[in-house]
Fold:
Amino acid sequence: MTPAPSPTRLPLTLYALTVGAFGIGTTEFVIMGLLQQVADDLHVGIATAGLLISGYALGVFVGAPLLTLATGRMPRKAVLVALMGVFTLGNLACALAPDYTLLMIARVVTSLAHGTFFGVGSVVATSMVAPERKASAISIMFTGLTVATLLGVPTGARLGLDFGWRATFWAVTAIGLVATGVIALLVPHTRNDDATPTSRAILSAIARPQVVLGLVMTVLGFAGVFAVFTYIQPLLTRISGFTQGAVSPILLVFGGGMILGNLLGGRLADHRLMPAVFGTLAALAGVLFAMTFALRVPIAAIAFVGVFGAAAFATVAPLQMRVLRKAEGAGQSLASSLNIAAFNLGNAVGAWMGGVVIDHGPGLGAVTWTAALLPLAGLVVAAWSHALDAREGGAALHATPLSTTPGRAN
Structure:
């Protein structure tokens, strides 16, 4: 039975979910601080090692909507525990993988838990609190992802440098065991009485033009982010001249920028959504282009890693809200899941594109300015979407000629 929501105290369930989010966030991003070690140990190139990010992201892209639908009628606690079990076993397989192929397979298996965990976890989190605290409940859970980027990834990178990359995956496996235990202990048993989405709701969420354009913006924006972030270790060591040991503390700067950008993006999106979409995508493109020059000066490189983190995560709230606002009714939850998948498809596309630039294009030094082209393409899509807004608004005015009240910008 679900405990009555407390208006003053956040339940321990939220912090159990936070532990799971921390583990998932760490395993997704930590590989970026280990690329050099993985590539050397498994005798593959940097670009090939970078595909481990793409494989994970594609697993999330496929797994998020499919597993969300497949587990829609199961008790949510059982789903969360099972997902953390998959996550834990996947990381154990990563730690034991004898070659690149098996490491890739293990990464993909691990990724299947990602999207559905955040989707189901959000529902559980909001069910534990009073209505006026639902947004706070979700933010508490996602704090785990934020802390993973700020602390888990640099710590994992340092652990990999000192004890080998496999030690990092052993540590994440331990986090998975802890998360599975606290979720099993603290998340209450509840029945899931939600109706499984109908095919009409699914098609409505996917096929609505404005939702599709929102998903495309998300893919392009985060493809630009991960074309650079995937290769942040070789960029800092080979171009900026830092030692491998310096990468871990520099990633802390990225994490700090990410937190500030995430908060700023949320505020901007609450104030005026579409201007926030335009502004954050434009800022991201400008920062990526400027990094081409900043990386060649060590002090400027450190500063721009922080600015890059802020610009990257300032886009998250506006892009997520754009998709949610353009989805309607039963399609909203699926559209939200699809947008999580779109973020990860962008991760995969960006990692692949960065590898192509390194191996077959101008080289590592060109990764940043070529990455800037992706959010610029996102701006073009945003302009298209905004034009559709104007057309739809004009049609609404013609349909209701007596209305003189302007609608809020979308």
